[in-house]
DNA sequence: TTGTAGGCGTTATCAG
DNA sequence: CTGATAACGCCTACAA
């Protein structure tokens, strides 16, 4: 079997507790003893068994991030920022992925027990209908980039998100103000009841407010079986729309990836963007700033969301009280894909746009 | 304290071992007893403590993936494929991220002990000079998308990668064959000794083979302090090059992200691609197929690499013998960004390219 | 089929 | 400052 603390103790002629003290930087230990032990540890390549440690420990100064959707293109950034913030608090942390079929709350429940977590952050996931389960999590947690339902008997939880409906509304309003009246939307699958639906709602509300009738053929839903907000799916949706020949002067994709797929499809069909058709996305992926044409989009405040998530978590850990959820404002970045478009446009579309903020 | 197996036992009026048996689907247990127990477990929301389990267990049917660089854009795909493959073997698995400063091998060593892993896969990372440490990993492991140095006293390890130098060579050769003589390269930081250097070597060799003298000003290195292969860094590098006014007819970026940054910079400078300048990348990110113009690149066999990694791992787990490392061929995808370019070009550049394979 | 007891590798407690 | 020893929660002989 592998090396244990006992072996080290024996080798150094000390008791196991002394070794443990050396390993954990306890103050009450002779300097030389400590060094002798650490040297032996180094030499033999001894590694303490974390399972045993966690089993015994009550306190861990550890938090975890539970990530539901690896693919989500801005989770990488969020994780990096969270990592920094958590380290600043002198906590250790780790990231746990949960698969498509796994339940994120179950994973959390296990982890809290296993690792003696002080708190955790959910990155993505879907929590409607999981109230009861969530209530079982005994440590504070924050749901990041997703809505959190009300949880009976649970105080120390919070959420950070943006107002998907409202931001979506702003985007469509932006198009309306330019005078667009035929605005197609590349939306989520029909039965979606997550952010996809919210963004669609925003679209509908904006049109209503601007007295533009809804055209069913301009609302394109993803297929149930290909429901990812991917470039490929955006591409396909756009192609179908083009094939049908319905007129439209603007396309709003509920995700940047879909917008890019759409742009590709438009390009291949010979439709010039933005001159002949405006295109807008949602999310604020950095890709969109580099695309040609650069893509108008709703930029999610990624860094801030990450920071606020961590902040809320530690607030709860320290105060043992809940903190209210936060809805952060996003930023509409107008880029070339909608520039100078629409009946209300005044001048020609600028050809180059180094001046457009990336 | 939280619920334990004892509480459940007491509640059901049985012994702890019976509960354990129910929990672990042991065959020798009365059906009704089992159901009674499971019902109680469900009711109380009991969750076994994994630390205790792992401590006791010797064997776990678990493998782990250790990911070094969250940002790497094709790791997401690789992870998904690996996940599928590992599940097919009826193993459980999890993904562990290690931070920039953390050492991946140390993380592995800990994990093996803690979770009683049967094997693990490193995704990314850097292993030169870590031979001794790697030798301490007592279970089989595979290094994916990175080189593995020779490890004394360690049989059951392997690697999966592509030949970065050779593939890079092919890409540059491709440009040479088109008649390009002034080929700029956007390369890694000067002191890079990883894939960045290999790709640069391939560039040099290709030029040598085609009797094209090296122009120092055409070799643009990333700055040490901004060494990521990012769009932003590619953009900056390209801008500098353009500013200097050196002539070139093609740009080869050692990563797709940098290529896209470069394309953006060229666009903003009014240089038409591919008409006035060819651009090529490396990696095969799906994004390149949707960019306008679509980007010629070296497509890494992502799926295959993932599958082969898992395959090799299980081969080693089962046979307890090492398997030789594999170097997989990549595919050069010619797309619009180099189409019909160079002195040897025959016709005009096609305007649309729905026919170009995405 | 079920219960009891011992031990997995640590850490915490408490004497020394 | 140091060393025994009892947990931590679970699994697994072994006995019943």
UniProtKB/TrEMBL annotation, chains A, B:
<dbReference type="InterPro" id="IPR046335">
    <property type="entry name" value="LacI/GalR-like_sensor"/>
</dbReference>
<dbReference type="Pfam" id="PF00356">
    <property type="entry name" value="LacI"/>
</dbReference>
<protein>
    <submittedName>
        <fullName>LacI family transcriptional regulator</fullName>
    </submittedName>
</protein>
<feature type="region of interest" description="Disordered">
    <location>
        <begin position="337"/>
        <end position="358"/>
    </location>
</feature>
<dbReference type="Pfam" id="PF13377">
    <property type="entry name" value="Peripla_BP_3"/>
</dbReference>
<dbReference type="InterPro" id="IPR000843">
    <property type="entry name" value="HTH_LacI"/>
</dbReference>
<keyword id="KW-0238">DNA-binding</keyword>
<keyword id="KW-0804">Transcription</keyword>
<feature type="domain" description="HTH lacI-type">
    <location>
        <begin position="3"/>
        <end position="57"/>
    </location>
</feature>
<dbReference type="InterPro" id="IPR010982">
    <property type="entry name" value="Lambda_DNA-bd_dom_sf"/>
</dbReference>
<keyword id="KW-0805">Transcription regulation</keyword>
<dbReference type="InterPro" id="IPR028082">
    <property type="entry name" value="Peripla_BP_I"/>
</dbReference>
């Amino acid at each position: 079997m592998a090396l244990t603390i006992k072996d080290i103790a024996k080798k150094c002629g000390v008791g196991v507790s002394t070794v443990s003290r050396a390993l954990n930087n306890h103050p009450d230990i002779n300097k030389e003893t400590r060094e002798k032990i650490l040297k032996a540890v180094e030499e033999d390549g001894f590694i303490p068994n974390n399972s045993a440690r966690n089993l015994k420990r009550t306190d861990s100064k550890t938090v975890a991030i539970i990530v539901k959707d690896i693919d989500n293109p801005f989770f990488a950034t969020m994780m990096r920022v969270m990592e920094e913030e958590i380290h600043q608090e002198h906590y250790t942390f780790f990231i746990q992925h949960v698969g498509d079929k796994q339940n994120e709350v179950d994973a959390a429940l296990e982890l809290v027990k296993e690792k003696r977590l002080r708190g955790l952050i959910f990155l993505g996931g879907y929590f409607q209908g999981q109230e009861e389960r969530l209530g079982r999590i005994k440590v504070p947690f924050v749901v990041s980039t997703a809505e959190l339902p009300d949880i009976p008997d649970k105080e120390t939880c919070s959420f950070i998100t943006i107002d998907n409906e409202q931001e979506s509304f702003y985007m469509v309003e932006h198009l309306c103000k330019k005078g667009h009246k035929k605005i197609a939307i590349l939306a989520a699958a029909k039965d979606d009841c997550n952010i996809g639906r919210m963004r669609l709602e925003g679209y509908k509300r904006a049109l209503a407010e601007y007295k533009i009738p809804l055209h069913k053929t301009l609302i394109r839903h993803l297929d149930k079986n290909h429901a990812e907000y991917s470039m490929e799916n955006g591409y396909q949706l756009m192609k179908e729309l083009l094939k049908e020949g319905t007129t439209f002067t603007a396309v709003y994709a509920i995700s940047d990836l879909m917008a890019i797929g759409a742009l590709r499809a438009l390009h291949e069909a010979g439709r010039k963007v933005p001159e002949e058709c405006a295109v807008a996305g949602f999310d604020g992926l950095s890709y969109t700033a580099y695309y040609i044409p650069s893509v108008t989009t709703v930029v999610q405040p990624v860094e801030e969301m990450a920071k606020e998530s961590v902040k809320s978590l530690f607030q709860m850990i320290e105060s043992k009280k809940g903190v209210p959820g936060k809805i952060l404002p996003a930023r509409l970045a107008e880029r070339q894909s909608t520039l100078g478009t629409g009946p209300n446009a005044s001048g020609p579309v600028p050809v180059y746009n180094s001046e457009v903020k990336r």
